[in-house]
Hints:
The chain is mostly helical and 72 residues long. The chain contains 5 helices and no strands. Keywords: Coiled coil. Residues 20-47 form a coiled coil.
Amino acid sequence: xxxxxxxxVIGRAxxxxxxxxxxxxxxxxxCKEYDLTExxxxxxxxxxxxxxxxxxxxxxxxxxKRGGTGLM
Length: 72
């Protein structure tokens, strides 16, 4: 497994609302630029918007791509 790639995807998902929605809508398509295994893609497909959004809300707004606007 490529833990660093999964971390990059999760990090982007919590800081970039558009990517987060793309990941929820179609994880395989959203992650095509990442070097992920089938197992990792399967796991990412199971993420839900509520969990990602809740995590994103715990981060400092300065980390957001939009400075905190659009995390909802």
